Amino acid sequence: MKHRSEWSPFANCKGYQNPEDFHTKGRDASIAKLVCKHCPVRIDCLEYAVVHKERGIWGGLTERERRKLPSMVVEVLVIQYREGGYLEERPELDSHPVESKPLSL
Ligand code: SF4
């Protein structure tokens, strides 16, 4: 788990003219997934996308695929991001479903 600024310089998609366009919904998923497949920061990217509810392809998975990840995994990631100070201040995250739900192990 790292700040996005620490791992994004090493991303395979960095060479795209506008890296943000790489993730956008509607892009050919097979091309994006191919680029992600051997990305050295894939796990960091995937964690970031899950926690921040990003859209499109991140970490080699579509939004739909990321939604299939076990909710416990997502909860743990969100808590770790929040406690580590890695959670970005973004309005759409204010209503994150795990915000008020304590983790019970
Ligand atoms: S895993 Fe894919 S979307 Fe994420 S940084 Fe790497 S190339 Fe970009």
First and last CA, distance: 21 Å
Bound molecules: iron/sulfur cluster
Per DSSP E runs of 2 or more residues, the count of β-strands stands at 0
Helix content: 40-55%
Based on secondary structure, the structural category is mainly alpha
| Overall pLDDT score | 82
SSE ordering: HHHHHH
Profile the largest sheet: none
Beta-strand portion reads under 5%
Q: Nearest-angstrom radius of gyration? A: 14 Å
Give the number of domains: 1
What low-confidence regions span 5 or more consecutive residues with pLDDT below 50? 98-102
Q: What would you call the shape?
A: globular
Report what the structure shows.
The chain has helices at residues 4-7, 19-22, 29-37, 42-52, 63-67, 71-84. The chain is an all-alpha fold and 105 residues long. It has one domain. The two termini are 21 Å apart. Mean pLDDT is 82; it is low at 98-102. It binds iron/sulfur cluster (SF4). The site of iron/sulfur cluster has 15 residues, from helix 3 and helix 4.
